[in-house]
Design brief:
mainly alpha, 5 helices, elongated
Length: about 190
């Protein structure tokens, strides 16, 4: 991440002429680029879950259950799922069991989200350190490697180019998937 986005730090370095501030601004830009959209999605998802009309969900669940039962009862063949006689597979499910499972999943997601936040904090700290000392590390490696400075610069340029292509193509891919989802949601009448 540092190598692929080091040009951001160089741009800030030309602007502020302070290594610490340029490194801090670079980390902040990457934080805005990656983390803020993620928190927006989490926030919108939480708001959507809080605004669920449970009576309408119960009606929708019962309607779907009735339709599936109707379709299964009119199939020209018998489906044997290993259940005792006269027991319906759909009777094993209820809205309360689905809500209970959803609550368990939500608590797991919240627990893992805390670990994710801790990991992001570590990544941002190390990213700042690598931005701050990146030039010195590069010069040190340039001195100790048994190659000429031109060869080291050529290899470093190639590595930088490949990592930058991977980084930006990933960001472009995420943006295009988001646009595609937005178009599909619009056509299905979703907000």
């Amino acid at each position: 991440l540092c190598v692929a986005s080091y040009f951001i730090k160089q741009w800030f370095m030309r602007l502020v002429k302070n290594n610490g501030l340029a490194s801090l601004f670079s980390v902040f830009v990457l934080l805005l680029l990656i983390i803020v959209p993620l928190f927006f999605v989490i926030h919108r998802g939480a708001l959507s879950l809080l605004n669920i009309d449970w009576l309408a969900a119960q009606t929708l669940y019962q309607s779907a259950n009735d339709k599936i039962s109707y379709i299964l009862s009119h199939l020209p063949f018998d489906i044997n799922l290993g259940l005792p006689n006269n027991e319906n597979l759909l009777s094993k499910f209820s809205l309360s069991s689905i809500a209970s499972n959803a609550t368990n999943i939500a608590s797991y997601i919240i627990k893992e989200s805390i670990n994710f936040l801790i990991d992001i904090c570590f990544i941002m700290v190390f990213l700042f350190v690598f931005f701050y000392y990146g030039g010195r590390i590069y010069k040190y490696l340039e001195r100790i490697l048994p190659f000429g400075r031109g060869q080291v610069a050529l290899v470093a340029g190639e590595i930088n180019g490949v990592l930058r292509v991977v980084f930006f193509s990933t960001i472009l891919n995420v943006c295009l998937q988001g646009v595609a989802f937005g178009v599909c949601a619009y056509f299905f009448g979703l907000d």
